[in-house]
Every structure is written in structure tokens, then in C-alpha cells.
Q: What sequence folds into this?
């Protein structure tokens, strides 16, 4: 992949950066010149990726962040400002695909947990990370929603509702913060080859059949790669997207077309 310093000199905070799509986003932003705060609950994997980026001569730190904890957000943003002197880019990527229950028997605690991580976590990211970007004079925020914000999925009540919430929350932030120089956009992946999707597939009674069904829902004929989502995020994070705010970009292999 060619690198041309699309986000050179910027400071980026990426949640869920220890695995899958978030890790690919952190790497891509780093390759393109950003100093990156990798925030996650998985310290081992997060520290390892931050060390790998530093080993490549880049600027990166790991921060322990549970996106559902307001105190964690306050600490992490404070630390990021202390280490790098400002914040320009926020990517709210941390998420879980819990749920997986039919509505008639849906467990309320399961619903609450999914909404807490996938939606409250983005709200707190905006409230604290977003506020720091506003205070810095402007920047870009990218929220990771899902094609499941558009296409309903059986047993997906909590996940689909959380991701639709992220899409609309993105638009409110975009509207309120456009005059303040902060662009806020959402990226909506189809199924992407990550540990999250691997777990969903491997839990099915017939994993091979489940994988084939998942692939068949994507007219492109395969699942996506984390790097393909990271490239879309990089676009919104960079000045190349200077006139884009409140936009939803489906990167879903055509899943939502039918
Ligand atoms: N993989 C897909 O097919 C797909 C499709 C559409 C949307 N998404 C979304 O992309 C995002 C990343 O998914 P992924 O597939 O890379 O998953 P993943 O499981 O590989 O990575 C998720 C990361 O989020 C972290 N995390 C979980 N709970 C957290 C919390 N409370 N606080 C901080 N970090 C937490 C995990 O430790 C992990 O590192 C999620 O928001 C997911 O909903 C994924």
C-alpha cells in the first residue's frame, strides 16, 4: 500500500484498536503519519500492536479503556493530550456482536450490555474525545456502525438497534459540530474477516454452512478484509474528505443492495 502522509502530524485515538478492524485502522493511520493512541480493554494485544508500531519508527501508545466507563474516557483523553499535546482524529470502533437472541426470549441484561458497549461507548467517545477535538480547533471523527444498521438480522435486535443508533448519533454530532470545524462520519461494514465474525461462524452448529451463507449475502462473493474498512476510515479522517460530514459509507460487498 502506498503511503503519502495523508494524516501526517495528526494525533488519532482509536477504540477497539487491539483486534480486527480497529487494529487495521490504527495501523493504517500510523502508516499515513498519525501519532496513534490505541485504546482497548485487551492490554496484551493493544500493548503488542503499539510496540510493533513504535518498532517501525512510529509514534504510538496503548491506553486501557473500557468504552462504557466515563472515568476511563476522562483519563485516556487527559493522557492523550498530555503525551501528544492535542487530539485531531477519533475513531469509535470498539464493539461487540453479543445479542444473538430472538426477541421473544431476549435477555434484558444482554440487551443492556450490547447497547452499553456499542452505543453508550460512542456517546462517551463523542462527549470526551469529541470535546477535546472541538477544544483543539477542529478535526475528524469516524464511527464504526454496520450494514446491520440498514438490514435487519434475525436474532440481531440489540446489535442492529445499537448500530442504527450509532448512525443517527453520528448525524447529530455532525450537525452540531460542523460550525466548530469537526466532521463526523460513519462507516458501515458488511461481514469482515475478524475474530468477532470468526466467533459468530464457529459457534454455529455447522460452521462451514454458516460461512457459506454469510458469503452468499455479499454480491462481491467473499467477506471483507479489515484493511478495506481501514481505508474508508482513513479517507474520512484525512483532509481529502474535507467537505464530507454526516455521511454514511457502506463498505459491505453489496450486502445492502437487494
Ligand atoms: N467484523 C465484522 O464483520 C463487522 C461488521 C460490521 C461492523 N463491525 C464493527 O466493527 C467494530 C470492530 O469489530 P471487529 O470485527 O474488529 O471485532 P473484534 O472483536 O476483532 O475487535 C473488537 C475490539 O473491541 C474491543 N472491545 C470490546 N469491548 C470493549 C470495551 N468495552 N471497551 C473497549 N474495547 C472493547 C475488544 O477487546 C477488541 O479488541 C465493532 O464495532 C463491530 O460491531 C464489524
A:
Amino acid at each position: 500500500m502506498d503511503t503519502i502522509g495523508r494524516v501526517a502530524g495528526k494525533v488519532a485515538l482509536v477504540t477497539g484498536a487491539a483486534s480486527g478492524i480497529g487494529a487495521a485502522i490504527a495501523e493504517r493511520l500510523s502508516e499515513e503519519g498519525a501519532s496513534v493512541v490505541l485504546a482497548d480493554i485487551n492490554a496484551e494485544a493493544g500493548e503488542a500492536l503499539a510496540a510493533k508500531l513504535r518498532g517501525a519508527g512510529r509514534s504510538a501508545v496503548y491506553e486501557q479503556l473500557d468504552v462504557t466507563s466515563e472515568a476511563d474516557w476522562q483519563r485516556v483523553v487527559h493522557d492523550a493530550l498530555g503525551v501528544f499535546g492535542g487530539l485531531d482524529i477519533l475513531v469509535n470502533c470498539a464493539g461487540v456482536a453479543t445479542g444473538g437472541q430472538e426477541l421473544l426470549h431476549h435477555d434484558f441484561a444482554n440487551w443492556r450490555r450490547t447497547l452499553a458497549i456499542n452505543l453508550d461507548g460512542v456517546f462517551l467517545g463523542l462527549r470526551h474525545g469529541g470535546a477535546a477535538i472541538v477544544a483543539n480547533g477542529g478535526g475528524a471523527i469516524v464511527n464504526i456502525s454496520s450494514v446491520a444498521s440498514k438490514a435487519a438480522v434475525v436474532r440481531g435486535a440489540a446489535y442492529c438497534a445499537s448500530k442504527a443508533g450509532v448512525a443517527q448519533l453520528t448525524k447529530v454530532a455532525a450537525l452540531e459540530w460542523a460550525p466548530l470545524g469537526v466532521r463526523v462520519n460513519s462507516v458501515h461494514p458488511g461481514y469482515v474477516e475478524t475474530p468477532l465474525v470468526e466467533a459468530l461462524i464457529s459457534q454455529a452448529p455447522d460452521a462451514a454452512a454458516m460461512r457459506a451463507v454469510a458469503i452468499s449475502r455479499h454480491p462481491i462473493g467473499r467477506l471483507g478484509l479489515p484493511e478495506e474498512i481501514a481505508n474508508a476510515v482513513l479517507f474520512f479522517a484525512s483532509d481529502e474528505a474535507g467537505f464530507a460530514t454526516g455521511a454514511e459509507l457502506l463498505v459491505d460487498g453489496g450486502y445492502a443492495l437487494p
